[in-house]
Write a structure and sequence with these properties.
This protein is mainly α and about 80 residues long. It has four helices and two strands; from the N terminus they run αβααβα. The chain has helices at about 5-15, 35-45, 50-60, 75-80, and strands at about 35, 75. α1 (about 5-15) crosses α2 (about 35-45) and α2 runs antiparallel to α3. It binds zinc ion.
Length: about 80
């Protein structure tokens, strides 16, 4: 796997957009123990995240390895907090 940005840094960018799954306001955490995949996808569409960032995000979806990605897939808070 190529070196990407730390997931915590990517999450800090993604939180700037409204979550498309639970509708948490920008800057407000999702109502899950982590962040919804929909939020990262929206940030990607807004140009805040890039392709390599999304690869890091998809690798972090729980439970690993996820067989199906949905907008409600959650990237666990424990993963988001992990320093890399
Ligand atoms: Zn959410």
């Amino acid at each position: 796997m190529t070196a990407g940005r730390p997931i915590a840094e990517i999450a800090a960018d993604a939180v700037r957009v409204r979550c498309g799954f639970c509708w948490a306001e920008p800057g407000v955490p999702c109502d899950a123990d982590g962040m919804h995949l929909a939020r990262f996808a929206r940030a990607r569409r807004c140009g805040i995240l890039d392709g390599p960032d999304m690869c890091v995000v998809l690798d972090a979806v729980a439970p690993p390895p996820a067989e199906v990605f949905t907008p409600g897939s959650v990237i666990p808070a424990s993963t988001l907090a992990a320093a890399s």
